[in-house]
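Lecture 7 notes: from sequence to structure.
We start with the chain below.
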Amino acid sequence: MPQQSRLSPRSAVTFGLVCVAVSVLPILGGLGVIDMKLTPGTPRWVGVGAGCTFLLAGITLIVDGASGAIGPDGQLSNDAPAWLHVFQSLMGLGIVGTMGAIASWIAFGPGERHFSTTISLPFGWWHPSSGETTGRWAFGIAAVLIWCIIAGVIVVSVRRLIVRARLLASRRVER
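Predicted structure tokens for the same chain:
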């Protein structure tokens, strides 16, 4: 059986801090605090959203690492505080939801889009022509898949919270 790779709490906090640092520029640029050259027609919220995916991931890594409640399988233990289970679920939804919003805007939003395709091979690259329709289709499929993932995450998260609540209730009854 292959050995699972797992971050130590210290590594999780370190990677979390890196993610938070990476999030600063796109968020500040999207808010207009620093000058960020956006493609004409791109709303500023796209920059904020891109930065927020890294910010939420970083905060999640920091909290998970600092809490020490992650088991050897990489999941929260059943004994972890309820707020941590809810927090982790909300952060996951926030990350995927932000990516879904950006992909949806690229696919279905108004205005012209410019896409390029690069296929890397061991000894060269190929740049086939790609038009706006192809790019919008690709992002549209991705957006639909992301929203399906969000629906699945909501279902799984609610089920986990219900199972955890029942487990805690049964432990109280046994006492």
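Points to note: Strands lie at 119-121, 124-126. The radius of gyration is 20 Å.
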